[in-house]
């Protein structure tokens, strides 16, 4: 098996309880964490499991070492890419279900991006709520050099986060962009010198974990329902069901008392 997706406890120095945050690490040594088929399947399973953990408040997605994700593991491509059925099975049965699991996760998801973020890496980052990058990170999807377009659902995902101009440049010109360009486009939330990225990431995670977790999950459900036009989603059918919740009461009481809320 080539590569793996690991879940690691959050052990950074900021005051975050271990149960509140985790790292999901993409690891494919020697291939800049390119996604193998096994890794796509693992990623889906990991996020479906994390979605079921009620105490979790933040998930960090990052690559092992000096790259986020350099794309797909091209060494596997000859095994399935040249037949329509097997190619469809790969994109619709492995890649998209994994990306969908990230998109359906109600826990705030932070991407920490260093080095190469190409193809599949851009797709994975597109699933995240907050995207932090080192100023040395590089972004692109130069698959036109390999002779194929991006799969429809994956292209729609990237388009929704990156916008039409940059998406067209990536896919039609095989353009590669620096972190500052991606920040200016609105794709990235923050860009920092590489040496400072970890400290900024720790502060971001601590800030998220100190906020109301129920509100965060409801916000993600709400934004997803609005984006999908799902008028039947529970969060739209009963948008004020949280009224008598302990978290709601604590937040208001803490504000009135001028103290830090204990969520």
TrEMBL record:
<dbReference type="InterPro" id="IPR014748">
    <property type="entry name" value="Enoyl-CoA_hydra_C"/>
</dbReference>
<dbReference type="InterPro" id="IPR051683">
    <property type="entry name" value="Enoyl-CoA_Hydratase/Isomerase"/>
</dbReference>
<dbReference type="GO" id="GO:0008300">
    <property type="term" value="P:isoprenoid catabolic process"/>
</dbReference>
<dbReference type="Pfam" id="PF00378">
    <property type="entry name" value="ECH_1"/>
</dbReference>
<dbReference type="InterPro" id="IPR001753">
    <property type="entry name" value="Enoyl-CoA_hydra/iso"/>
</dbReference>
<keyword id="KW-0413">Isomerase</keyword>
<comment type="similarity">
    <text>Belongs to the enoyl-CoA hydratase/isomerase family.</text>
</comment>
<dbReference type="InterPro" id="IPR029045">
    <property type="entry name" value="ClpP/crotonase-like_dom_sf"/>
</dbReference>
<protein>
    <submittedName>
        <fullName>Enoyl-CoA hydratase/isomerase family protein</fullName>
    </submittedName>
</protein>
<dbReference type="GO" id="GO:0016853">
    <property type="term" value="F:isomerase activity"/>
</dbReference>
């Amino acid at each position: 098996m080539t590569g793996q997706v690991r879940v690691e406890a959050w052990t950074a120095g900021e005051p975050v309880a271990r149960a509140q945050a985790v790292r999901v690490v993409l690891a494919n040594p020697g291939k800049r964490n390119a996604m193998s088929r096994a890794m796509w399947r693992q990623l889906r399973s990991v996020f479906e499991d994390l979605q079921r953990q009620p105490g979790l408040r933040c998930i960090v997605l990052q690559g092992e070492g000096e790259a986020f994700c350099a794309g797909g593991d091209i060494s596997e491509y000859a095994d399935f890419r040249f037949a329509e059925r097997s190619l469809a099975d790969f994109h619709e049965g492995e890649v998209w279900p994994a990306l969908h699991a990230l998109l359906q996760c109600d826990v705030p998801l932070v991407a920490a991006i260093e080095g190469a973020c190409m193809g599949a890496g851009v797709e994975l980052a597109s699933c995240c709520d907050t995207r932090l990058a080192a100023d040395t990170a590089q972004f692109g999807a130069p698959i036109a050099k390999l002779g194929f377009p991006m799969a429809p659902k994956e292209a729609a995902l990237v388009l929704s986060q990156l916008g039409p101009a940059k998406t067209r440049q990536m896919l039609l010109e095989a353009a590669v962009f620096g972190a500052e360009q991606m920040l200016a486009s609105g794709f990235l939330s923050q860009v920092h010198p590489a040496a400072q990225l970890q400290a900024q990431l720790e502060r971001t995670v601590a800030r998220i974990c100190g906020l109301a977790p129920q509100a965060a999950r409801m916000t993600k459900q709400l934004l997803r329902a609005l984006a999908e036009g799902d008028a039947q989603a529970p969060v739209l059918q009963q948008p004020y069901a949280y009224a008598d919740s302990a978290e709601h009461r604590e937040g208001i009481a803490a504000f009135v008392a001028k103290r830090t809320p204990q969520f």
